[in-house]
Design brief:
The chain is of the alpha/beta class. It folds into two domains: about 5-205, 3-Layer(aba) Sandwich (Rossmann fold), CATH 3.40.50.1110; about 205-240. It has helices spanning about 15, 30-40, 55-70, 80-85, 90-110, 130-150, 175-190, 210-235; strands spanning about 5-10, 45-50, 75-80, 110-115, 150-155, 245-250. The chain has a six-stranded mixed sheet, sandwiched between helices. Helix 5 (about 90-110) packs parallel to helix 6 (about 130-150). The longest helix has 25 residues, at about 210-235. The chain is globular, with a radius of gyration of 18 Å. This is Lysophospholipase L1. InterPro entries: GDSL_Rv0518-like, SGNH_hydro, SGNH_hydro_sf. Pfam families: Lipase_GDSL_2. It comes from Actinokineospora terrae.
Length: about 250
C-alpha cells in the first residue's frame, strides 16, 4: 500500500493532459491517471491539478508554485520548460533560476517532489536537434535539483518508445491517450508502485506510403503548425483565458 494521501500537479499542457480526453470531453492525462491509481489505496485521497497549456516556467512559478506549496501535499509533480526551450529568445539562465526556485519551494512544503527528464524530440521533429544544447542543460538541472532535494525523477528522455508517431496526437506536439497512459505508468513505477504493464515496450510501426505521409504533413502544417507559429508571432498562448481544471486539493474518486 502506498503512503500518499494527496497530490498536486503543476506545469503546462503535458500535465494538464492535452489530447487525452475523458468520457466528459475534458482533458484527463497522465497526472489524473497517477492520482486515480494512488487513490485506490488511500481512502480520502485528495488531488489538485493547476497545470495550464502553453505556460512558460515564469508563469508556472508566478501562478502555480506558491499555490501548490500552500496546499502542503504529500506528493507534488513539476514538469515544465519545453515551451521556453522552443522559443528562439529563451534565456536559459533565467529559466534555470526559476526552476531552482520552484523545486526549492515545493520540496520545502511537500513530502515528495517528482521531476521529469523531458521527452527527446530530436528523432521525431525535424529541426529539433538545434534545441539539444538547451534540452541537455535542462536535463542536467533536473538531475542536480533531484539530488539536492531528494526528489524522484521520471526519465522519459532515455526512452526510445516516444519516437513512435503512435503515441502522439495529430498536432504532433501533445501525447495522445496511449502516450499519457505510458507516462502515468512510468511515473508510478518511479514512485515504487507495482507495474501493470511495460510502459517502454515499442509501439508497432504501421508503414505509411510516402504520398500519404506528404498529404499528412501538409494537413498538419495547415491545421497545427501555422496556428502555432501565428500565436508565437503575436505573443498569444493557447492557455490564454484558461483556468486550472482542479484548482483546489479536493477529494478525488477514480
Amino acid at each position: 500500500m502506498n503512503a500518499h494521501t494527496s497530490m498536486v500537479a503543476i506545469g503546462d499542457s503535458f500535465t494538464e493532459g492535452m489530447s487525452d480526453f475523458g468520457p466528459d470531453g475534458e482533458c484527463r492525462g497522465w497526472a489524473d491517471l497517477v492520482a486515480a491509481r494512488l487513490a485506490q489505496d488511500s481512502p480520502g485521497f485528495r488531488y489538485a491539478n493547476l497545470a495550464i497549456r502553453g505556460k512558460l516556467v515564469r508563469q508556472i512559478v508566478d501562478e502555480q508554485v506558491d499555490h501548490a506549496a500552500a496546499m502542503r501535499p504529500d506528493l507534488v509533480t513539476f514538469a515544465g520548460g519545453m515551451n521556453d526551450v522552443l522559443r528562439p529568445a529563451c534565456d536559459m539562465d533565467a529559466l534555470a533560476a526559476r526552476v531552482r526556485y520552484a523545486v526549492r519551494t515545493l520540496a520545502a512544503s511537500s513530502r515528495q517532489v517528482v521531476l521529469f527528464r523531458v521527452i527527446d524530440p530530436t528523432r521525431r521533429m525535424r529541426g529539433s536537434s538545434r534545441l539539444l544544447p538547451r534540452i541537455s542543460r535542462l536535463l542536467s538541472l533536473v538531475d542536480t535539483l533531484a539530488a539536492e532535494h531528494d526528489a524522484v525523477v521520471v526519465d522519459l528522455f532515455s526512452s526510445r518508445v516516444f519516437d513512435s508517431p503512435g503515441l502522439w496526437a495529430p498536432d504532433r506536439i501533445h501525447l495522445n491517450t496511449e502516450g499519457h497512459r505510458r507516462v502515468a505508468e512510468a511515473t508510478l513505477r518511479t514512485l515504487g508502485i507495482a507495474p501493470t504493464f511495460d510502459w517502454d515496450t515499442p509501439v508497432p510501426v504501421d508503414p505509411t506510403p510516402w504520398r500519404d505521409r506528404a498529404t499528412s504533413d501538409l494537413r498538419w502544417a495547415r491545421a497545427h503548425a501555422g496556428p502555432w507559429i501565428a500565436r508565437r508571432l503575436t505573443g498569444r498562448s493557447s492557455g490564454d483565458g484558461q483556468l486550472p481544471k482542479r484548482p483546489e486539493l479536493d477529494p478525488f474518486t477514480p
